[in-house]
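>> received
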Amino acid sequence: MMPFFPNCTIELYDYTENEEYDVYGEPIVSYNLIGEYVCDFQTLSNRDSQLMFGKILNDTFKLFLDFEVPITDKMMIKKKGENNTYMLIGSPQKYDHFLKHQEVTVQKTRKPWQI
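>> returned
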């Protein structure tokens, strides 16, 4: 059961390190599509941003997802039909009570990742 008001579909991409390395010795990272999920995608309010980060951030959002969505802190998120990518800030907060759901705080990346 999805609580709240779903307003968009997101694509979840899982983080994978390849066995190849770039010129700096860092592993080459790729993201594989896990699936598409419906969520409630909301702008983080100035008050919440001030409480969480100590300053107001413009490109920060809060997602409300179904409890069973397999999301982890290393995943990348993309809104379906858009080029912008979003990375998770912190870990997903799971609420296992009457309205089972997850809350995730995400931030828009400065440059869209090539997924």
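>> The radius of gyration is 15 Å.
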